[in-house]
Amino acid sequence: MAHDPSILEAFFEECEDLIIALTEGLTEMREGHADTETVNAVFRAVHSIKGAAGAFALDELVGFAHKFETVLDELRSEKLETDEKLMRVLQRAGDILADLVDDARENAPANRAVVDPMLAELQGFLGPEGDEQDAAEEEFVFEALSLDVGMPDVGPAGYCVSFHPSAEFYALGHDPALIIAALMELGEATVDVNMQDLPTEFADFVWSQGYLSWQIDIAGLTTDLQIHDIFQFMDDICALEVVSLDMVDDIAAQPSVDLADELTAEEIKTVDAPEAMGGPTGAAAPVKEQQKQRPAKKPAATTLRVDPERVDRLINAVGELIINQSVISQRLQEADLPNLAELLADLDDYKFLAREIQEGVMAIRAQPVKPLFQRMMRIAREAADATGKDVELITEGEATEVDKTVVERLADPLTHMIRNAIDHGIEKPEDRVAKRKDSQGQLRLSASQRSGSIVIEIADDGAGLNRSRIRDIAINKGLIAPDAALSDQEIDHLLFAPGFSTAEEVTSLSGRGVGMDVVKTAITALGGRIAITSNPGFGTSFSITLPVTLAVMDGMIITVGDQTMVVPISSILETIRPDMSDIAKLGLNSELFRIRGEYVPIIDLAERLGSQPSQKDMIDRVLLLVQTESIAQCALAVDDIFDQRQVVVKSMLGNYGEIDGVSGATILGDGKIALIIDPDAITSVMAAKTRLTTDDREAAHVRAS
Amino acid sequence: MSEQVDAMTAKEMEFVTLVAGGQNFCIEITQIREIRRWSPVTILPHSPDYVLGVMNLRGAVIPIVDLAAKLGFEKIEPTERHVIIITAVEEKIVGLLVESVSEIIGVSTDMVRDIPRGPEDATTRAILGIIAIGEEMTKIINLSILSSKKDQVAA
Fold it and tell me: In this complex, is the C-beta atom of A671 within 8 Å of any C-beta atom belonging to chain B?
């Protein structure tokens, strides 16, 4: 069956939501504060995935979800005891289900090596009895299960199924008699046929049209799931109403809260009649009314699905608005008008409003990191299983909101880092015990917002970095000179050097040699920074600092030669107009700047960017004291500072390509483009260059200029 | 785009003719977004000599390439009278600095000839074909040279 790709996409989006609900529920269950409703919610999530996947003929997914659901059903009916082992299996099953959904989305074949053992494990909980039931269900024969759904006093007596096949139903060769027969097997059933739609004149009769509808009352059923199973593949070709029998009885008399609760608990699906059918759905109408009135038990968060492109257009337009505001502001200053003060005050209002709009638009793109963190939980479990280590992943600050792009693009680096931490950081249980640590390792993943930045930390309580080994490897791989004097911090940062991999043996999890430098590149591409701190014997912690939004940043407007540029405020510690006495020569060309007793290297920004070094004396220039990850502190020499303002970041990647030392561009008030300097790249090249010989340095300069 | 093209399948194409490095060239009109006067650009660090810098085109940052230098001629000293042709190739927007733009010519595809085999240089490698118009001849520029992989590395 060919499907509209947009419908399929909607299915996968829904699956994402369902998997989030599933993961949440399973976590609650594992932590032990779950009630019957949680179990039901988990069951419903799996069931919905199965149902929808069936409609798209995603057999792998259906098969797995079915087995998973069967185990959950046993749990729900308290035939199975919740213990640690079962919960572990269920959580893994949840992970695999999520993987299967991803596989299906990418049209990739399922990973049988993972799926099959899990199926067997799930089957293990079912035992022979479950097997029978399973086989039976395949043949569309159901045994009545007495399920406790958590409402002992108002257990429904059964269900009333209204069923009206459409013309398409017949055209596809379905037989209502078989459906009715299947329904009748569910319990004691009475079938009524409704013939009122039949035309009175024979001439009006269209042979292909479906005129008949049926109402089947099934007694003794406590759940409608089996009913929905029967109609699973016919949802869109017949009109279907499934209503609890006592609902039908009490419907007029008692629109009470109890009833509503019960309705919520029952999964009621209302399927709209397809156009081909026409005519009223009869008895179903009052029930629909009733559903509308029921108070929601948990008010569902109303969300809006918007095409991200529309939001991006809006963000772009708001960016232009802000640029426009600075253009007007600049023009006004130049115009020297009589009532300038008033105008500027009005303009401030305009600025304020523009900012507000911008923040609002940005908030649309912001998403909590929760789904990302949940995915990391999965990764951590998989990694722990694969390495035979016992690891607990603790997440904090899941509600922290980050730009959607950031959330998406963080997934890969975080996955890598989590795997690394479990594979290399956390020791094997026996080693941990020997070190008098808890045999279970702890991995902490936290997100928080700190003054315009999002900080994500990954900390393990493992062995910490083995600095002498990192050093040896770096020397072996020619990353540093054998006699290089490096601080601990510099050694730690060698991890981010391209081609560095510390794993003694390459494991399937990590250590493919593309490790941390890829992580660093990904973070830098997002305008973020990554730092590492390690305490030997007590663990390693990575801290990723990201801008809240990618579209706007606070920048210092500077001039270098005749060019105007922007340096991100976030990396500037202070700006200094130096005294001659604070400048010290170091060798032929290099200069050092003394600040509070410390000497920091001075980088001439113009020279570093490949243009002529400034002829101005250092005392006529301004030094920006910047902090980057490669060099703790360093002074960037620029010609002048203009202003500090919010700039709209434009990417250069699309039309041009990457430029060393430049992270992007922005448009200034006068319509000119100013490049945004990337202090990390500027200083990291310098850090690398100091390790090269003088000849290399000259060669590099020739290439750069 | 060869002489073998049957007259039946020949299509009408339009080209904008221009002068760069003192020679006649042309660009297919569908690849051109707009034509504007030269205005000072923002210089890019570490860029090849034919990349003049970037300019602001209604909020988009686009690189400006000196077409003459790119084709191996002398660099153009840009003045107010020089022209920038904004082109769109493979979703990239690039501005080309040229000496002047002359006219729009409509030719049928069977008038486009392959370049005769001969010694190759930076210019001939950038030419897709030639069109003879009376006594004059103009060369079609292959704009994809502007976004070749090699340049991206250099950038």
Answer: yes
Facing residue for A672 by CB, picked from B42, B51, B92: B42
What pTM was estimated for this model as a whole? Answer: 0.50
Distance in angstroms (rounded) separating the CA atoms of residues A18 and B34: 49
Q: Count H helices, E strands: chain A? A: 22, 22
Helix (H) or strand (E) holding A666: strand A662-667
Residue A252: the pLDDT is 45
* A658 in reach of chain B (CB within 8 A): yes
Complex ipTM: 0.75
CB count, 10 Å around CB of B108? Answer: 12
Say yes or no for a CB contact (<8 Å) between B44 and A650.
no
Interval B43-93: pLDDT, tens: 888 888 889 999 888 777 889 999 999 888 888 888 888 999 999 887 788
Mind listing the pLDDT tens digit for each residue in A29-84?
877 776 777 888 888 888 888 877 877 778 888 888 888 888 888 877 777 777 77
Tell me how long chain B is.
Answer: 155
The H or E element containing residue A315 is: helix A308-335
Q: Which two tokens stand for residue A181?
A: 């027969």
**Helices A404-420 & A370-387 angle (0-180, nearest 10):** 20
Is there a contact between B45 and A659 if contact means CB atoms under 8 Å apart? yes
| Residue in A with minimal Cα distance to B86 | A655
* Low-confidence winner among A129-138, A177-186, A225-234 (lowest mean pLDDT): A129-138
d(CA A474, CA A477): 5
Q: Identify the weakest region by mean pLDDT among A232-241, A447-456, A660-669.
A: A232-241
Pick from A220, A45, A242, A76: which is nearest to A149 by CA? A76
Q: Return the structure tokens found at A609.
A: 């960017």
Q: Tell if the CB–CB gap between A655 and B61 is shorter than 8 Å.
A: yes
Substitution target from A323, A655, A677 for chain B, most B beta carbons within 10 A = A655
Distance from CA of A310 to the nearest CA of B (A): 17
